[in-house]
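ok trying again, last paste got cut off:
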Amino acid sequence: MKQIRTLLLATAFGLWASAATAHHIAGSVVCTDTTPATPLSGVTVTLQGALNTVTGTTAADGTFFISLPTVTDTYIVTITPPAGLTITSPASGQYSVPIFANGVGGPDQFNDAHFQLTGCVTPPPTACWMTAGGVKFEPLANEFLAEVNTGNGPNDTWGGNVYPSCSAFPGDGGHWNHVAHRLKLHLNGQIQRVIECGNVPGTEPGTDSPECDVNFIHWEGWGTISPINGGNTGKKVPVYYEAKVEDRAEPGNLKGAKNQPDDVDRYYLKVWFLNADQTIGAPVPGFEFGTYAAPIQVTGGNLQLHCTSCD
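nice, full thing came through this time. structure:
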């Protein structure tokens, strides 16, 4: 009885193994942006033959195994990449696989339909950091600041640094001040996070002094606003702000750039109140300078991007 049971089990296993390996196409789908590669699950795999079309999806480990009818056919194996991903291997983006009925004349299985993709990991933004110095000393801010001037003295003064030495750690990402004299308000930025460093479309990439491969920095921050010019300086209101600096030339202000618009540094800032739950509330009235796409021109001082220490 034991011999018969063993024989039956062995026979059954042999039949299962034969059925599992015959007439199929198998392979894998992975993203090679990481080491080791990241398996991609749930990717649709299509086997398009002259006689049949069969589909399947990849498992949690990125593999797929698709059974085929017992007929001779040539299948074009393709996948539907997830949004934003690009097939890098095979170069054609597909496999052409002949499958033969009963293995007569050729293989009845193919196990090497391996697809490699890229784009699953978003590259970090190009690193940079920024400092601002200028022509106007603002005692309240206790820093040398750049200024915007309409001919009647500074309307606004600002300055500080963002990610000093290309690090988010010192000073919680740096320190930014903007004194809006016309609003009688002082923004004291105490926590900052760089969103992106890059190049303004339509401008010459990078900067020359010091040499850097980008010409703008875009960041966000958290801090307070408080009254100035005799107001209650002890009254500080929590705010959130977004800012951008375009370093287009040296020194970069209107006078230094000889009134060439393309060579003038630019600056954008907008400030919002913070709600009690730390969500962003209403904009602070008037505390907005240009837009992200069209920052204001800098009439005095200098805004300087750096790429040192960013490796």
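cool. The chain is about 5% helix and 50% strand. The domain at 22-118 is CATH 2.60.40.10 (Immunoglobulin-like).
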